[in-house]
Design goal:
The structure is a single chain. Helices cover 77% and strands 0% of the residues. It is built from seven helices and no strands. It is elongated and about 55 Å long. The longest helix is centred in the last third of the chain and has 30 residues. α4 packs antiparallel against α7. It has 173 residues and is an all-alpha fold. The chain has one domain.
Length: 173
């Protein structure tokens, strides 16, 4: 019998299914702590263009909220992905790509990504120096929207991965 499962129901069922096993629960807790700590350093460091532990004191309340959200969501995706890959669920690799893309959005404001893209496509130094700062400034001034976009992409990845896990679990039963 082929039954449709809603996204949130699948997310709840997959999360309970995976995290009721101690190894996955402990992995999730460890990943959440480590990834959240990384984001506590990464988010306030982005305007400087380099990772620096000293800038943690300049983290804004909004960045704290997003650091925790990113840490928890990414660690849940990693944990569910490991479970899905072990049970050969379809689509586990695609959700990994979605997670990477959602993290890349955060690095567009002040990292060398945009100038590197200009250089990759053959732009001269003058073009890079003229157009790269305004583009990076756009990402810097609008960073809350891009953080929100990252959360949406991560949530979509979680929902897709959860549906695959629940589907495969239903087939095994």
């Amino acid at each position: 019998m082929n039954q449709k499962v809603s996204g949130f129901s699948a997310f709840r069922r997959a999360t309970v299914l995976v995290l009721r096993r101690r190894v996955y629960l402990y992995s999730f807790a460890l990943f959440s702590t480590l990834i959240t700590a990384l984001y506590f350093v990464l988010l306030p460091s982005l305007p400087n263009g380099s990772l620096n532990l000293k800038v943690v004191r300049f983290i804004t309340p909004l960045q704290v909220v997003f650091a925790v959200i990113f840490g928890v969501m990414l660690s849940l995706i990693i944990t569910l992905n490991v479970y899905a890959l072990r049970m050969n669920a379809e689509g586990a690799k695609a959700t990994t790509l979605g997670s990477v893309l959602s993290s890349l959005v955060n690095g567009l404001c002040c990292t060398p990504v945009i100038p590197s893209l200009f250089a990759f496509f053959g732009a001269s130094s003058a073009v890079v120096f003229r157009y790269s700062p305004p583009i990076q400034a756009f990402f810097e001034f609008n960073y809350p929207y891009f953080y929100l976009l990252s959360v949406v992409i991560l949530a979509y990845s979680l929902l897709r991965l959860s549906k695959n896990i629940v589907c495969c679990q239903t087939l095994e039963e």
